[in-house]
Each structure stands twice: as C-alpha cells, then as structure tokens.
Prior knowledge:
This protein is α+β, with helices and mostly antiparallel strands and about 290 residues long. About 25% of the residues lie in helices and about 20% in strands. It has helices at about 15-30, 40-60, 165-180, 210-225, 260, and strands at about 65, 90-95, 100-105, 110, 115-120, 120-125, 130-135, 145-150, 155-160, 195, 200, 205, 230, 250. A hairpin with a 7-residue loop joins strand 4 (about 110) and strand 5 (about 115-120). The longest helix is centred in the N-terminal third of the chain and has 19 residues, at about 40-60. The radius of gyration is 19 Å and the shape is globular. The model is unreliable at about 1-10, about 35-40 and about 255-290 (pLDDT under 50).
Amino acid sequence: MAANSKRTAGSKDPWVLEVEREMAAFAARHAKDYVFRDRELAGAFEIGCFLSLIADYDRQKATVTLHNLDANEFRYLTTPNGNPRNFSFVEVRTITGGFWQLRQQVRVRSHLHKDITFTPDIVLLDGAATINENKDIDYANGNRAFFSVSADAVVAAHECKSMTGFPELYVSFLGMFLAAHKWAGARVGTSAIQGDVGHLAPTLFVGGEASNLHRKIIAALQEVYPINIVTSLHRGGWVLIKRAKLLRRLPFGVATHSASVTTVRAPPRRLVRPSSTKTQPKIKDADIPF
Length: 290
C-alpha cells in the first residue's frame, strides 16, 4: 500500500480505523471484549474481511454463534503457525437446515494430492468438519503438531491481500481455488450465480484500487470461474452489503453433512437474533454438492 503523504507520525490510515470500528461493533453485538494490539496491517486487513463475511451472514438473517472464546475474548488467528483449536471461530446456521464453520488460517490438505497443503486466510467449512492433527518429520522436525482439514470439507476459501492488485496476483488465486475446492473442477468455465443470497463464492480481497485494464481481467476471470475478486477495500466499504447484489454466490442448498442435520441436537446458545422464519429466495445450482 502506498504511503499517505498526509499522515502524521503515529496516525492510522482510514481503512485501519474502519476495521477497528468494525471490531468494536462486532464485540458490542456479541457482548464480548476484544483486544487490538499492534498487529501488522496485513492481519488487520484480514480481520476486516473476516468481519465483513460475518456481517453478510447477519444480513441474510443467519444465526451466528461464537465458539472457543478465551476469557470472553474472541481470539483472531492471523498466522498459519497457530493451532486453530486454540483460537475462536464462528458457526453459521441458516433456515435451510445447514450449518458451517467460518475460520481463519486453517491448513487445507488438497484433494489433488495428499502432500499438497496450504493455508488460506479465511475458510468456510462444512459444519461437521474436523481438524486433523499428526506429527510430520518434515514439519518442524516432527516436534510440533501438523494441523489440517480435508479439502472435502471446504465450501469456500478466501484470500486477503492488503496491497495494490496486479494481474499475476489475480491469476495466482486460481491455483488456490482449484487446489482447495474439490467441487471446482466441474465448475471451470462457468460463473457462480450473481446475487445477494447464499455463501460468498471463493473470494480474493484486495486493498488497493484496480485500473481499467485490471477490471477487464477481473471481469473475465469471474466469467469463467465461480469466484469473486473484490478490490479497493482500502477506500472503505468493508460491509459486503454495499456490494451484495454484484457478488458471486454459492447456494446454501443441502449441506454435505446431511446426517448431522437430521440428528436431534441441542441448539447452541445464540448470541445474535435467531434466523428469520420467512423463506429466503432459493438459488438453483445442482452442480455444487452443498
């Protein structure tokens, strides 16, 4: 991100202040405390994207429940080095009967090959997904646990880049898209449904603005892959509701954890208003298995 000549020593860019406000509002809505220490800007940017996804589900009247709090604090994970079991995550439930986990920095083991592992910034997982733990001699000499989740459980993986975009960045996102989503192969050559209902399709969030040429590249990529590339977030507009109808979506549909849906379970303690009883518009897309 280019330096702002009007900034004074110790001042913060407007987008950083906006993220802080969103964090405060998120904490207030859920009656939780939050801690915002001297994080790297990349971490703050990722948190802003994470909160915008939560706000998008809230707009759709989904039930959002916070899990794994630490002393009443929501612990954000913004590095791939952390143990995801020690950090907070969000459960999303919709009136369709499905539920999902929205997490940060969970390593994915690709469906393409068992040795292909990588860590998206944000990942939406099947609600019944489990995080596997094992020791690998090629990871930290086998001294630390290697945590991962199967790509079979990945609904949508998102990346957050607090920088000015460029063509190679946009194209490189396709590698993660294809490696993280088992359902992606059958969808190449088709765009996701555009609208304001459903999960956000795999998205690359970019802080900097896009040139006219870049916009043409982005439009073309979104036409042939079921993805979003959202730019200019440093200018504001973190709440996805401002762009909701323009974004590509995946249907809530029937989740892959159908056995869990039919099982009688005690509902989690709701920390926000419950889902609306009104029927949401249906999105038809039989190609996506969730």
